[in-house]
Design goal:
single chain; alpha/beta; Rossmann fold; seven-stranded mixed beta sheet; 12 strands; globular
Length: 215
């Protein structure tokens, strides 16, 4: 499986178009016949971001000519998926994203057996074995999908000063690997060669931390 994991965008700084372009270029390079869009992390969009990330932005802002767009909220669309790329967008509802995937056995099977996953912010971090959750105003580390074993990922890495946070999270769960991905930046992994090789997309920082390097 190949993972294309983006660190998100700072919408209030006008970065959304740049992120959408990076995602669009990545999808066109892969050339899937179908995109299975899993939107649960961004169901409730802040009012000031509705024009950017509101319902329908994928169809409006990405070049999908010749590509069938499937919505994971639709049972019939899940059943149609046979030659697909999974796209999990970001947002403030990462816990809902995980819960909806994990509780739907058909969707879970599609995600875990995909050839390619494109993730953005929350959609990236949930691919790791561990991920940060902000439940009941408390920050805890919980289980992710576990596609990248013994790993935790932080998006918006430099922009939100999450360097020490990532190290602390690694120590908390004794994770072997931590990955920090900047906004407007992506990292490409192949699960067959992980963690030995990766490729960076964009101009920001991707920091790969090993447990042995922690202070």
């Amino acid at each position: 499986m190949k993972l294309y994991l983006f660190g998100g965008a700072e919408t209030d700084k006008g970065q959304a178009p740049g992120l959408k372009q990076l995602i669009n270029d990545t999808i066109l390079k892969i050339q899937p016949k179908q995109i299975l869009h899993i939107p649960y992390a961004r169901i409730d969009v802040p009012k000031e971001e509705e024009d950017v990330w509101g319902e329908g932005w994928v169809l409006r802002d990405l070049t999908l000519e010749g590509i069938e767009l499937l919505d994971a909220r639709n049972k019939d669309d899940i059943e149609k998926a046979n030659d697909y790329l999974v796209f999990m967008n970001g947002g403030n509802q990462k816990d809902l994203l995980y819960e909806r995937i994990f509780s739907n056995k058909d969707l879970y099977k599609l995600v875990m057996n995909a050839n390619c996953i494109v993730g953005e912010s929350a959609g990236s971090t949930v691919c790791a074995e561990y991920c940060r959750s902000d439940k009941d105003d408390q920050t805890v580390v919980v289980k992710g999908l576990g596609i990248l074993k013994d790993t935790i990922i932080e998006a918006h890495y430099t922009e939100r000063n999450r360097h020490q946070l990532l190290k602390n999270e690694m120590k908390e769960v004794d994770a072997e690997f931590g990955i920090g991905v900047d906004s407007l930046t992506g990292v490409v992994f192949d699960t067959k060669t992980y963690p030995e090789k990766y490729q960076v997309i964009g101009d920001g920082i991707v920091e790969f931390i090993k447990k042995q390097d922690l202070e």
